[in-house]
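Researcher: Predict the fold of Response regulator receiver protein.
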Amino acid sequence: MAKKILIIDDDPEVVSYLKDLFDGEGFTTFTATDGVAGLEQAQVHNPDLITLDMDMPARGGTLFYVKLRKEPGLAEIPVVVISGVGPRPPALGNNVPVISKPVDRVKTLRLVKEMLGE
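Model: Structure tokens for Response regulator receiver protein follow.
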């Protein structure tokens, strides 16, 4: 069964790019445009990995991450931050990888596959 990736980003071009990238590698993808919808999608689909933008409306990446880590059954889902904004927020800790935008296709795929044990 294909591994599931939840893409959370408010930029439709980034979402489309990541969706095409991951779908092309055989992953099943789901998307959300903010942290509120992202948490709902995570609860519905229980993804194997989440890519997370930090600067979004409604609930940004930091608030989403803090909420996710408190959710039973979702707290252990690996997260990769893909963002174009500033330094790492302290809430993330050092074990959350950060990829800067613009996204490097090879680096992103390598990291995601490594985190998923592929």
